[in-house]
Amino acid sequence: MITRKGTLALLSSAALALTACGGGAGSSDSADSVKFGWLNGITGDYSSYYEPSQAAVTIAIDEINENGGVLGKEAVLVTADDLSTVEGAVQGFSRLVDVERVVAIGGVESTGGLAILDSAIEQQIPVFCPGCGSAELDTLAGEYMWRITGSDSDGGTIAAQFARDEGVKRVAIMAQNTEGMSEPADVFKKVFQDGTDGEIVADIRFNPGRSSYQAELLKAFESNPDAVYLAAGHEAASVIFREWQRRGYGGKFYVSPDLVTPPIGGLMPDLEDGVAVGAIAAYDVESPAYISFAERFNEATGYAPSPGVYDANQYDQYIALALAITKAQSTEGAAIAEAIPQVLNSGGTVVYSYADGVRELEAGNEINYDGASGSLELNEYGNLASPLFGEQFIIDGAWQQVGTLKLDPELREVLDR
């Protein structure tokens, strides 16, 4: 997930890069166009996501305009660089809303989403967060902000779901004593115990930066677990896995999403073929919406969409916004916000494109837009009701997806108890 931990440095000045893209030059005449804002980290820590994300949102705006625009008007995208900072997000939001007069905003990351949440509610500006992982949004969004990817807390939940589905009853936890690692481990512990009736036979926390974790490994495996849940950084995990290999403990690991990376995938053959199991966000690659988007994305970029950079989510947010405006027959923020769950949640005709959605709405039918990133069904907090995850095994020295699984909403509800 795109998230930031710890203290964020505030910049004393922010240069906002504003451009317009879409089916023609940007227009300030609201009578002729509908302006969408894209508040994104073009520079700074999130800048590596910019190019694929920019390609995805351009595809969405082009699709909208090629199919009649929004309420018969041209869709225009106005971009603001949030500098990957809190201050940049606040300034960018103000510029987009107060100067550019956009009707809605997409593209924000966790840092930006949390920074502008109160302002979005106060000013009734619909905001989509296509890659926000922050667990703080688990119950804060829903009125004027919608997160269309899984939460960081879902990483621990989906690991508990894998364990439940595989019949695992006894798990030892090994978690690094840092916020980003302790949180998913705590989630796993609660969901596994209270949601699956599993038993945590050991809960071991350790500090990073050590040369050995033999004592922690011994404590974990002498408790005779069916599996070990490991949440750690690359350095500590590498030491743990090598000592595990040397001592021949055997068994199975469920790992936090931070370890589903090439360095861990290529660490050793002993972890292959289901010994280490991970999960990351996934796309429904058989969906007509995904197939259509992926073809256009590949033509534009030369490579396939990747769940790790949330490109399909970036695309979906503007298709959803345009359909909500069509449903509401209004560009007023409150009307758009009311219509968003109406076009995304089940109960209507399933559609996979903007054109099909508009056609059904104009015929007086309810719709359920199923996006390129998968189902966009929302819960009461504006989060995906059942985000899709890919089960990952290490095969031939690399993590590979071996299946997909929707998160069980009932397990997520365990966290609210």
UniProtKB/TrEMBL annotation:
UniProt key word Lipid biosynthesis: no
Domain Leucine-binding protein: 33-342
Family: Belongs to the leucine-binding protein family.
Recorded superkingdom: Bacteria
Protein name: Hydrophobic amino acid ABC transporter
Species for this entry: Mycolicibacterium chitae
PROSITE patterns assigned to the protein according to its UniProt record, in alphabetical order: PROKAR_LIPOPROTEIN
InterPro entries referenced in this protein's UniProt entry, alphabetically: BCAA_transport (IPR051010), Leu-bd (IPR028081), Peripla_BP_I (IPR028082)
UniProt KW keywords: Signal
Pfam families assigned to the protein according to its UniProt record, in alphabetical order: Peripla_BP_6
Signal peptide from the UniProt entry: 1-25
